[in-house]
Amino acid sequence: MSNSEFESPERHYEVLFERALLPMWVYDAESLRFLRVNEAAERLAGALRGPSGPMPHEALSAREFEVLRMMASGKTQAQIAGELRLSVKTVATYRARIL
User: Fold this and answer.
1) pTM of the model
2) 5, 37, 39: which is closest to 21 by C-alpha?
3) Using an 8 Å Cβ cutoff, are 81 and 75 in contact?
4) Do residues 66 and 97 touch, judged by C-beta distance below 8 A?
């Protein structure tokens, strides 16, 4: 990476996001639409969906996506279980399916 890639702090974080080895994404909390995904997430999505399958987040049930959204906001399994009126074990099962 050259110094010219980091002309501003914003660009510095943008490059770190794009080149991260772990899949990362940014989504709108209201609509739950993905705004941006990094290269690792794109590679993972391609590997999971195959040449013509749905993106992984499109294959989630509404409840799984709701659990994913709550996990992404930093809630614990116990908090998610309480809010969704599920057992902690059920939330753990959803978590295992998602990840």
Assistant:
1) 0.46
2) 39
3) no
4) no
Helix/strand/coil for 82: helix
* Residue matched to tokens 């930093």: 74
Tokens of 23: 């899949």
From the list 60, 14, 59, the residue with the least C-alpha distance to 38 is 14
Q: State which residues form the domain around 75.
A: 60-99
The DSSP letter of residue 23 is -
Are 70 and 80 spatial neighbours (Cβ–Cβ below 8 Å)? yes
What does the pLDDT look like over 50-64, one tens digit per residue? 555 555 556 677 788
Residues 81 and 98 in one domain: yes
Contacts of 61 (CB under 8 A, 6+ apart): none
Question: What average pLDDT does this structure show over 63-71?
Answer: 84
